[in-house]
């Protein structure tokens, strides 16, 4: 299973249920990585999407509300139900897409993390756990690029000791 996230240096990912930055290159990267794959997200992230479900992807939404409906998406209500559902797909085709509660819930099951890394601190209200403290090692990083005055790199982390489903 993979994780894909845009983070700042202090692991911030969101504010007011929105992303912290508008980076078209990052959105294109997200689309390239996840198209034709399975995307797993929390209810709040699903509701924040401008276009739902994410097109050309199997969308799986985790919600604690038994009556939560997400048109065009599969809804699950627990970690156990989710793991059962994704077991039938190839692990490399499953992408955990947020938000914080879902990254933290599934981080230890991911072998690869695709991280858009923004080397600064900005006001935020949503943070994820430190990937390195969960066993991830940085294996690749692109040269820095700047868009909308934000400098970022694309990083790949691997977690050789991830939990098997
Ligand atoms: N930077 C990025 O790459 C990125 C990507 C995606 C999202 N985000 C940002 O992340 C923020 C949203 O994150 P969030 O943590 O607030 O929300 P979230 O993870 O998107 O969704 C939380 C929902 O999932 C449910 N849930 C979590 N674990 C569950 C479990 N084990 N069983 C059943 N339901 C479960 C929660 O239920 P409870 O109410 O019971 O907790 C809640 O309804 C937004 O700001 C968004 O823009 C950033």
Tell me what the structure shows.
- The chain is an alpha/beta fold.
- The protein has one domain: Dihydrofolate Reductase, subunit A (3-Layer(aba) Sandwich).
- Helix content is 19%, strand content 34%.
- It contains four helices and twelve strands, in the order βββαβαββαβαβββββ.
- The strands form two sheets. Strands 1, 4, 5, 6, 7, 8, 10, 11 and 12 form a nine-stranded mixed β-sheet that branches.
- A hairpin with a 2-residue loop joins strand 2 (12-15) and strand 3.
- The longest helix has 11 residues, at 24-34.
- The chain is globular, with a radius of gyration of 15 Å.
- The model has no long low-confidence stretch (mean pLDDT 97).
- The structure holds NADP nicotinamide-adenine-dinucleotide phosphate.
- NADP nicotinamide-adenine-dinucleotide phosphate (NAP) is lined by residues 5-6, 13-14, 17-19, 41-45, 48, 62-64, 77-79, 97-102, 105, 126.
